[in-house]
Specification:
Helix content is about 45%, strand content about 20%. It is an alpha/beta fold. The protein has a single domain, classed as Alpha/beta knot (3-Layer(aba) Sandwich).
């Protein structure tokens, strides 16, 4: 199952990018034998200042046709890491070819985009900068692959 991270903003060189790249590399190596990956990152930017609506239009164009869409949103439901791993495995086992994970900009995702998501997840009630949310997502993808692979990385 291919993963498409469709995100607002550019991740510039620095510690966030280093962490993100490290966890994505780990995920791809761990997940490859389990049918998870590769990961494609599609970064979009609204240079005209159109806000969430303009960002939503750019994100929708970045999502592959027929992909399952997971929206990362503060209003989404929370899951444990094992639940998230099971969800990824279920999609894979159900024959989902592409999973698009969407992260909005500083103001979040437009309501019309959230409404189109197959599932919305949250990292909790706190609001996180979208650049850190990318790092947290990458780590959870790696953790999910580790759980599915029986690695001791995730401790209960």
């Amino acid at each position: 199952m291919r993963l498409h991270l469709c995100v607002v903003g550019r991740l510039r060189n620095g510690p966030e990018k280093d962490l993100f790249s490290d966890y994505i590399d780990r995920f791809e190596k761990t997940g490859r034998g389990m049918g998870l990956g590769p990961v494609e990152v599609v970064e979009v930017e609204d240079r005209k200042g159109g806000g969430m609506k303009a960002e939503a239009e750019l994100l929708m164009r970045a999502i592959p046709k027929g992909a399952v869409m997971l929206a990362m949103d503060e209003r989404g439901k929370t899951q444990t890491s094992p639940q998230f791993a099971r969800q990824l495995a279920k999609w894979r086992d159900d024959g989902v070819q592409s999973l698009a994970i969407v992260i909005g900009g500083a103001d979040g995702l437009a309501p019309e985009l959230r409404a189109q998501a197959d599932i919305s997840l949250s990292f909790g009630k706190m609001v996180w900068p979208h650049m850190l949310a990318r790092v947290m997502l990458a780590e959870q993808l790696y953790r999910a692959a580790s759980i599915l692979g029986g690695s001791p990385y995730h401790r209960v």
